[in-house]
Write a structure and sequence with these properties.
Layout (H helix, E strand, L loop, with lengths): L6 H9 L26 E2 L2 E2 L1 H20 L12 E5 L6 H9 L8 E5 L4 H9 L6 E6 L6 H15 L7 H4 E5 L2 H7 L6 E3 L16 H7 L1 H20 L6 H15 L4 E6 L7 H13 L17 E4 L10 H6 L6 E8 L7 H18 L3 H10 L4 H11 L7 E8 L2 H22 L10 H13 L10 H14 L1
Parallel strand pairs: 3-4, 3-5, 5-6, 6-7, 8-9, 8-10, 10-11
Antiparallel strand pairs: 1-2
Helix pairs in contact: 2-8, 3-8, 3-11, 8-9, 9-16, 10-16, 11-16, 14-15
The structure holds glucose-6-phosphate.
């Protein structure tokens, strides 16, 4: 199926800068940011590799300065807190990776502000010191309502405590929109450029990952890139039946399209990766949640699955009941690490015994005969056994993948994330859909802008009656 779908050619196109994001007329080149042996890649007649190296150096030099304390706040103090202001792709990847690499972190305190909820911003502000905080405004477009609103609120708060000239010590921006960044008042030397050939949800490898680089330092950030680069090489060169992203993508297609399952669970047996499921929710569902094929026709098969999950063993005590005995089949990825990062306690074997036991239980279940024997050994009467039997049987034959990794290192994390990125790509090729646009998030944004304008208006009858009622009620409660 992968061969028939033209996957070989599609992979080459993906890595070499073909404009595979057709509806936005863009190449998709997050892989160019992590080449193990940098080679030239042409986009619109320009070799992008030298610029990637130069911007990486800018990121690493800046991070070294901030970490070492050579970069000072406006009153001469070292930076202690870094606030990442961004949303979606400009937040989820950096936040997830920074959390996942907590073991490798330095002294900098990282804070992530994403949604436009004023209460959250106010809570964060309470913990900040304007003399020692660095703000990273991360927005590819620099027009995103949430990010621009949060950035303005924080700048206003900052300027209540510091002169305008201090902005250059405390605000940096990551964006493709240099004009808007300059309008915001960010000094040229504080701008970290990004490019339109990196999609938001695949951008943690770019300057969008500056918060990661600050939190763990350039060496670990570079290892993260190298790990992803290794997975890229594997994906690009391994034959399909030995190719991890291809195999995993085909397993998803098998359950999605031939067994009609609707959801897939991601269960990392690591608290460090507790936000991997939400990160992958965006990466997978925004990419492959499409209902028309590449020619614009409605598809008559299912495309992207619903992704959800939580860290094990917590999840076992929450939703695993449904996975074991519910009516729905839920293929799951179990992700575990052989070596813990901290030795000196007896937890690892207990954790891993759960990791192996759950997939065994899902696969084998527990049959009638075993349940009968167990109940009889417990001294239950034949009548009690008959009554309890149906509730204690596990059908089994419930599928799972085990991704068993040596240790949670920056490099292995890079490989793991890249694996999912390529799996998304392969599924998009097989389903014949465009994985790199996200028009589905536009409508809500447009309507929100219209509704925002209407809060000051008396006449609301251009809205449907449901929305009209809600707006009126809101206005009443706020007046
Ligand atoms: C990701 C999406 C989306 C995007 C955010 C933030 O692939 O495009 O999540 O990252 O909407 O956009 P900006 O970085 O432009 O603010």
């Amino acid at each position: 199926m992968a061969s028939e779908a033209g996957l070989n050619d599609a992979i080459e196109d993906y890595f070499t800068g073909g404009k595979i994001n057709e509806t936005e007329d863009r190449a998709v080149l997050h892989t160019a940011l992590r080449q193990l042996n940098p080679k030239s890649i042409m986009v619109d007649g320009e070799d992008i590799t030298p610029k990637i190296q130069a911007v990486k150096k800018q990121m690493y030099d800046f991070s070294d300065k901030v970490i070492s304390g050579n970069w000072k706040g406006h009153t001469g103090k070292k930076i202690s807190h870094v606030v990442n202001i961004g949303i979606g792709g400009s937040d989820l990847g950096p936040a997830m990776v920074t959390e996942a690499l907590e073991f490798y972190r330095n002294h900098l305190q990282m804070v992530f502000i994403s949604n436009v909820e004023g209460d959250h911003v106010e809570e964060v502000i309470q913990k900040l010191d304007p003399e020692t905080t660095l703000f990273l405004i991360v927005s590819k477009t620099f027009t995103t309502q949430e990010t621009v609103t949060n950035a303005n609120t924080l700048r206003k708060w900052f300027l209540n405590h510091a002169p305008v000239s201090a902005i250059s010590n405390h605000f940096v921006a990551i964006s493709t929109n240099l004009e808007k960044v300059t309008d915001f008042g960010i000094a040229e030397g504080n701008i970290f450029p990004m490019n339109d050939w990196v999609g938001g949800r695949f951008s943690l490898w770019s300057t969008v990952g500056l918060s990661i680089c600050l939190a763990v330092g350039p060496k670990h950030f570079d290892d993260l890139l190298k790990g992803a680069g290794k997975m890229d090489q594997h994906f690009r060169t391994a034959v399909f039946n030995e190719n991890i992203p291809v195999i995993l993508a085909l397993i998803t297609v098998w359950y999605n399209n031939f067994w009609e399952v609707e959801t897939e669970a991601i269960i990392p047996y690591s608290q460090y990766l507790r936000n991997l499921p939400s990160y992958l929710q965006q990466a997978i569902m925004e990419s492959n949640g499409k209902r028309v094929d590449r020619s614009g026709k409605s598809v008559d098969y299912h495309t992207g699955n619903i992704i959800w999950g939580a860290s094990g063993t917590n999840a076992q005590h929450a939703f695993f009941q449904l996975m074991h005995q519910g009516t729905k089949m839920i293929p799951a990825d179990f992700i575990g690490f052989a070596q813990p990062l901290n030795e000196g306690n007896d937890h690892q074997d207990k954790l891993m015994s759960n990791f192996f036991a759950q997939t065994q239980a899902l696969m084998l279940g527990k049959n009638e005969e075993t349940v009968r024997k167990e109940l009889s050994n417990q001294g239950k009467s034949p009548a009690q056994i008959e009554a309890l039997l149906p509730f204690k049987i596990f059908e089994g034959n419930r599928p799972s993948n085990t991704l068993f990794i040596e240790q949670l290192t920056p490099s292995n994390l890079g490989s793991l994330i890249a694996l999912y990125e390529h799996r998304i790509f392969v599924q998009g090729v097989i389903w014949n859909i465009f994985s790199y646009d996200q028009w589905g998030v536009e409508l809500g944004k447009q309507l929100a802008n219209n509704i925002l304008k209407d809060f000051d208006k008396e006449k609301l009858d251009h809205h449907d009656s449901s929305t009209q009622g809600l707006i009126q009620h809101y206005k009443k409660l706020r007046s």
